[in-house]
Write a structure and sequence with these properties.
Layout: E1 2-7, H1 16-24, E2 29-35, E3 42-47, H2 53-62, E4 66-70, E5 74-76, H3 86-90, E6 96-98, E7 104-106, H4 116-120, E8 126-128
Antiparallel strand pairs: 1-3, 1-4, 2-3, 5-8, 6-7
């Protein structure tokens, strides 16, 4: 399961992810991060095993971070999508592909919410999910 870790400027200098890995012994994969230097806050998208979500979320929250479960990272508007496939070529993780009937399908478990597909879509049929 994907989560977004929201950190405030006062806790960004700490090695939060390392601390949580050491405490929980859960291996975490960072999908992307946007942290501002010199006292800025930030966000980090992390892949957490489903069965260990509660333990990991509690460990981050104990350290002052806010956690949001990323349920649907990209939303496709089927009424706007013309199945052109422009999004397929820019997806770095292979989330988007064609079905046998040439319609676009998405495997959201792989999505790292980078937004490349949203930028590429000529019909604005894709949107980054809100947390």
């Amino acid at each position: 399961m994907k989560i977004t870790l929201h950190v405030t400027p006062d806790i960004t200098p700490r090695p939060l992810v390392a601390e949580v890995i050491l405490e929980t012994r859960v291996l975490l994969n960072i999908d992307w991060a946007s942290v501002k230097p010199k006292g800025g806050g930030g966000e980090v998208a992390i892949d957490v095993p489903h069965d260990q979500y509660d333990q990991v979320a509690a460990a981050f929250e104990k350290r002052g971070a806010t956690i949001t479960a990323l349920v649907q990272p990209v939303i496709k508007d089927d009424d706007e999508c013309v199945n052109c496939g422009a999004c397929i070529s820019v997806c770095p993780t292979g989330v988007i592909s064609f079905r046998d009937d040439w319609s676009v399908q998405m495997d959201l478990e792989k999505c790292v919410q980078c937004g490349a597909c949203v930028t590429m879509c000529p019909h604005a049929a894709l949107k980054v999910g809100k947390y």
